[in-house]
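2024-03-11 09:14:02 DEBUG pipeline.ingest accepted 1 chain
2024-03-11 09:14:02 DEBUG pipeline.ingest length=254
2024-03-11 09:14:03 DEBUG pipeline.predict start
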Amino acid sequence: MLLKPNSLFEPTSSRCTTPPISCPTTAAAAVSQLLPGLDHGLEINGTTIDCIPESSEFYKLIQDLKRLLGKDKGLSSEEIDIDKVKQLMEDYKSEELDWGKFALHDSSRNYSRNGIININGNANLLILVWSPEKSSAIHDHANAHCCMKILAGELVESLYDIPRVEGSSKMEVKKMTTLVRDEVGYISDNIGLHRITNPLKDRVSVSLHLYTPPYAAMYGCSMYESNGTKHHVDMSKYYSWQGKLVNPGDSSTC
């Protein structure tokens, strides 16, 4: 089922609702419904955005992130003040009217990755929509920083150590953390690997992700099987970009 952004939430409420739209029975049927709306001329991974009111707090967050991260293209992980990034993410209070248009989702997938803006080659800002009771794979972050803010619902982070020998032993959860609306999580490869899960049975959850530097989109990342075997994953294809579908059939996930 493809969820249109205005169907995910009631604009006057912070409560998630069941989308009041028809539900295609297969992913193929869902994709075919929206193929005519694809924007093949859209600049993917662009550094500007003009579809957010300048008066909104979400617009202010983007501008603050651009000021912090957008001055010198090619920042390394060590040059990024991640504490300031996390503070900016924490200061923004989620408002569905700000970001709802970007929260597109195909419920035949565990989650959908929606691109918002490329911050001068130094960061990517995404909105992820998570199907009920679905998870990502266990994965790394390509030697970059990842900040994740909950916009709606809740998510559970399961933390793992990076295997010393690939495929040698069962992956064991060393910590689980539940994040709720407006809370911010952080991970890097120095901390370990993680899996993200939407524990809710009847609602999508929505999260805002900042990846800096955007190494995963540039070079891919690694996902891990339960026995620690590692696989490279291309993460360059978004499901949508700035609210417009671009890869409904083969967007990247891990």
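2024-03-11 09:14:41 DEBUG pipeline.report Residues 9-41 have pLDDT under 50 and may be disordered.
2024-03-11 09:14:41 DEBUG pipeline.predict end
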